[in-house]
Specification:
CATH superfamily of one domain in chain B: P-loop containing nucleotide triphosphate hydrolases
Subcellular location (chain A): Cell membrane
Largest sheet of chain A: 2 strands, antiparallel
CATH class of chain A: Mainly Alpha
Number of strands of chain A: 2
Keywords (chain A): Cell membrane, Membrane, Transmembrane, Transmembrane helix
Strand content of chain A: under 5%
Distance between the termini of chain B: 21 Å
Strand order of the largest sheet of chain B: 6-7-8-3-9-10
Order of helices and strands of chain B: EEEHEEEHHHHEHEHEEHH
Number of domains of chain A: 1
Pfam families (chain A): BPD_transp_2
Organism (chain A): Azospirillum oleiclasticum
CATH topology of one domain in chain B: Rossmann fold
CATH architecture of chain A: Orthogonal Bundle
Order of helices and strands of chain A: HHHHHHEHHHHEHHHHH
CATH class of one domain in chain B: Alpha Beta
CATH topology of chain A: ABC transporter involved in vitamin B12 uptake, BtuC
Oligomer: heterodimer
Largest interface: A-B, 15 and 25 residues
Strand content of chain B: 25-35%
Radius of gyration of chain A: 20 Å
CATH architecture of one domain in chain B: 3-Layer(aba) Sandwich
Number of helices of chain A: 15
Strand order of the largest sheet of chain A: 1-2
Number of helices of chain B: 9
Protein name (chain A): Branched-chain amino acid ABC transporter permease
Structural class of chain A: mainly alpha
Amino acid sequence: MRPSLVLAAVALTVAALLPLTLDPAGYLIRVLTVTLLFAAMSQAWNIVGGLANQMSLGHAAFFGIGAYTSTILLVNYGLSPWIGMLAGAALGAAFAALVSVPTMGLRGHYFALATLAFGEVMRVIANSWPSLTGGPAGISVPFAPDSLLMLQFKSTLPYYYLMLAALVLVTAVFVVTKAGALGYRLRAVKENPDAAEVVGVDTARVKTIAAVMSGGIMAALGTAYAQFTFFFDPETVFGLGPISIRVALIAILGGIGTAAGPIVGAFVIIPLEELANSWLSAGTAGLSQLVYGILLMLIILVQPRGLVAPVEALAARWRTRRAR
Amino acid sequence: MSAPVATSPGTEPLLSVEELHAGYDAADVLHGVSVTVGMGEFVCVLGANTAGKSTLLRSVSRLVPRSRGRIRFAGTDLMALPSHAVPGLGIAHVPEGRHVFPDMTVEENLRLGAFAVRHDPAISGRFDGVLRLFPRLAERRRQRAGTLSGGEQQMVAVGRALMLGPRLLILDEPSHGLAPIVVDELHRAFLDIHAGGTAILLVEQNTALALSVASRGYVLESGRVVLADTADALADNPRVREAYLGI
C-alpha cells in the first residue's frame, strides 16, 4: 500500500472515532466541525487555485449562492435542503461558468482582483435585496425537529459527520481530478499556458471546467454551512475576510495543489483563530488579531511552500529510492 | 533573382499567408505580409528585433488576438480556428524563449507534445526518434525540465514539437541566448528534421546561420516584406549583407 493511503486511512479512523471522546454539545466538537467544513471548502478552492493556478479571491460568491439558495427555497417553499443543495450547486456552477468568460484571459493578480470584485458584488446584492435575502439583518433556517431529510439536528455530532463526509468526498474529487486527464491538462496550463496552447490544450475550456467544478462544490458546502449555523447574513457567507481570503489562505498555508494541504491548513488555522480569540480577546482589543497575524507570518516565513512541503519532499525521496 | 521565388508552380503551397495585418491592443505590427512555405521546404524569416517576425509566426498558430488577412494550411483556413486546434492539423510551434513545462520531467514534456494526436499509434516510435536526435534528453529523461540547461530546454521544446509528427515546424529564435556549440548542435538537428520531409519556418536573429540552413528567405522590416529570395541570393544581396550580416 502507498504510504499516503495508509496515512489517509489512519487520519480518517481517528476523525471518525474522535467525537466519541468529546462532549457532543460542547465547544470543541463545534470547532472541529467548522474546521472540517473549511478544509472541504479550501479543497474545493484548491481545484481552481491549486490545479489551475488561478488565485481566486472570490470563492465566497459560490459559497453564499449555495447558502442563500437552499435557505430561501426552504423558507419560502419548505423544500428539503438536499434539493436546495442541488439547486444551489447548479447555480454556483453556472455562476462560475459565467464569471469564467470575462476573467479567462486574466492572469495572476488581475485574475485575483477580478474574482475579488465578483465576490464583493454578490455581498452588495445580498445586502440590498432584503425582500429575497433578508438583507443585512440576515436570514434564519426555520426550526424543524431532528431529521436527516430536512438536514437539521439539535446535536453537533451529526453535523460533524456530515462535514467529515463532505471533506472526504471533495478530497476524493480533487485526487481523482488531479490524477486524471483533466489534471494533466490543468498541470500543463498551470506550468506554461502558452506552451499548453501550442501543443493543443484548449486552455480556456480546461480552466472553465475546473471553475465550474469548484464553484458547484463550494455552493453545496454553503448549504451545509447554512444548516449547521441556522442563521447567517451577507457578511458571514459572502464576506471577503471570513470566506474568500480564508479558504485561499488555508490552502496556500497548508500546501497549494496538494490533497493534504487544505486539510492540514484548516487544522492549523481554524483552531489557531479560536485559540487567539478565546485566550486573548478578554485582554487588549485587537491583540488576538495581532497574535494570529504574527503566527501566520511566521508559518509563511518558515515554510513558504506550505506545511506539507517537507513531507512531500520526504515522500518523493522515498519513491525515487524504491524506483531504483 | 529579385522576384519572389514561387514554390513548385501549379500546386498550392503547404502554408500560404496573404495580406496579413496583425497586432496587439492598439497598433498593428504586421502591415500586409505575404509568405509561403512549400511542402517540405525550409524557409527563414529575417529582420531586426521589432520587425514583426514573432508576430508572423504567432499569427500562423493563431496566438495573436487581432489579425486579418488569409492564412491557409494544406487547404484549411486557419483564420477560422482557435489556437488549440492548430497543432491537430500538423503545425508544431516552438515558441520564443524555451517554453518547457518546468515541473514536468523531460519525458512528460515530450509526451505532452503529442497531446493533439494522442490516439496516434506512431507516437512511441516518434518518442524514440526524438531521443536518437537528442541523445542528451535520453540521459535526462526523468529529470525535471526546469532544472536543465538552456540548450537542453530548447532541445526539449523542439523534441516536444516533433512528437506531433508535424508537416510544418515553426521555430521562433531557437538559438537565442545559447552557447555557439549548442546552436550548432540544434541547427544540425534542424537539417536532419528537414531531411526527413518536414517543412520548417524559422525565425532567427543569427542571419548567417539562418541563410546557411534555409533554402529560401524573407526579410521583414517594420511589418512589411522588403525582400524575398533564395537563401543564396539573400546572402549575396548587398542590402542584407550590410544590414544583417555586417559585412
